[in-house]
């Protein structure tokens, strides 16, 4: 008899036959009167928090909507349509060992093609592969039957429960098959020469090809799954290599914006701005631009040449209140003063001949 994967042995995912078998195994031989450990059906039901139930209901609703959005595919087999198929496929079938995949994650963390840690691998025989693929596809077959029976109408609560139950069973067997054959992806990856930075992408492509192979493999043809999966994985690697080659043709040099931005440009710009500001201050304080008293006072107040450390520079309206003019008149006086300062600054720069082209001082206006 086969034990269903741990990921589906909960709630409605447990088959009735599995419950009966569990009760038989927990009963002492000879039917003695000794104390018998309570079976799961005899234990008090654990009260599930309301928030957990609501979260599970939303997840089930999303899963149900996804299952009903498109036709559920499966690899058909004549045994599915015979009487007692469920009992023969699940209850009477031989056990299929579940693999250990603890060795797989540490190697992926290293991102490199290295020899995996020593582990007890599970290599299924042809008969065992047939058992687990029959169980996987029969669950998908039952899901397909429920889906076709709905004929476009909304599922009843019973139909929804059955569809979700068989989906959990199929998902569990799908994961078990993939975990058993994870080493195929790594073995095929060693045949492909790529840079270490591309190895993780290569493994991802191989894993996706492996999952597609699980869905499309027909165990009734008599071939081993590894034969079919290896060809699919190598084809996926080939497509990935072609995609990388096209990308390198379009972008022969990798572009890194962080490396393109040097500190020198910002430093030179900041130093130039400080030098310009110092020269503008000197022009205003020495009145080399021949500013009038009002123009000089407006500029001194506007750009905080007076009381630079006492706070933020006043606005045009505030300066107008200080000197008894309107905001618009203060703006006009400011523009006249800046034009004189700009001409003096440009004349000074061209006279020296060493400062090159000068930009006018950057001024913020309200």
Strands, helices and their partners?
Layout: H1 16-26, H2 50-69, H3 85-91, H4 104-110, H5 126-150, H6 157-180, H7 182-189, H8 199-216, H9 225-250, H10 257-260, H11 263-286, H12 293-302, H13 316-323, H14 327-352
Helix pairs in contact: 5-6, 7-8, 7-9, 8-9, 12-14, 13-14
Explained architecture:
With 366 residues, the protein is mainly α. The protein has two domains: 210 residues, Four Helix Bundle (Hemerythrin (Met), subunit A) (Up-down Bundle), CATH 1.20.120; 89 residues, Winged helix-like DNA-binding domain superfamily/Winged helix DNA-binding domain (Arc Repressor Mutant, subunit A, Orthogonal Bundle). The chain is built from 14 helices and no strands. The chain is elongated. It starts with 15 loop residues before the first helix and ends in a 14-residue tail after the last helix.
